[in-house]
Amino acid sequence: MHSSSFNLGESGSEQLVARRPESETPEFDITAMVDLVFMMNIYFLVTFITVALGELNLPTAKHVRPFDPEEAVIFTLTRTLDGKSVTLYLGNGDKGEAVTDQTQQEKRIRESVEQGKAAGKTAVLVKAEKKVRLTDLFRVATAATADGLKLHLAVLEKDK
User: Fold this and answer.
1) Among residues 127, 67, 62, 55, which one has the least CA distance to residue 92?
2) pTM (global) more than 0.70
3) Which alpha helices (H) appear in the chain, and where do they start and end?
């Protein structure tokens, strides 16, 4: 039988020794693959929801009526040019009286709501531009709430 070393001469330094195979275990980092799988899941979920909702046919409403602006107290909110505050118009659009001070706005809203309630109005409509901050809208809507009146919020789209 042959041994694992070769003898090429009488001296020990001339002997060749066979190398042992390295016993290091191979490693595979799957961090990037896990990230990829999560991103693919998100992609497929969003795609599926978009496609599924696109094919959804909702029934038309049968027991509704259009909103009558004559039955409501109307307020219109627009954002000022500097973007730091809002202008409140008492009425529909910018045709009504403009109020810019926040404390005056809340006072005038309460007065208008009470006058509308006394006149037999059944709702409050707050129309706001798309750029109005939610904090301003919430402040105005809170001031416009009253017992017995329904609060309606709408987005005001400006004509180009």
Assistant:
1) 127
2) no
3) 31-54, 102-118, 134-144
